[in-house]
Amino acid sequence: MYSPPPVSRLNEKEARNETVATRVCRNCDVRFSCRSFREYLRIYRSRDLPRFKRMYEDAGSEQDRETRIDIALETTPT
Predict the structure, then answer these.
(1) CB–CB of 58/65 below 8 Å?
(2) What is the C-alpha to C-alpha distance for residues 63 and 78, in angstroms, rounded to an integer?
């Protein structure tokens, strides 16, 4: 099981003077459900919160949502 680093670690500068959040978290598949990343945004990147909220709430186009529902229904055992 993976435990995310503390929020203070996400703001530390690393290679090429990028923060851990910029270099690692932005490429992580679970960043939107990661408590450390959300807290990092709240503390250090409050100007990014509206954009983060839009990305977090974006479920794709209507066609994308319908496709996901169809696939789920097809693969659900009866």
Answers:
(1) no
(2) 25
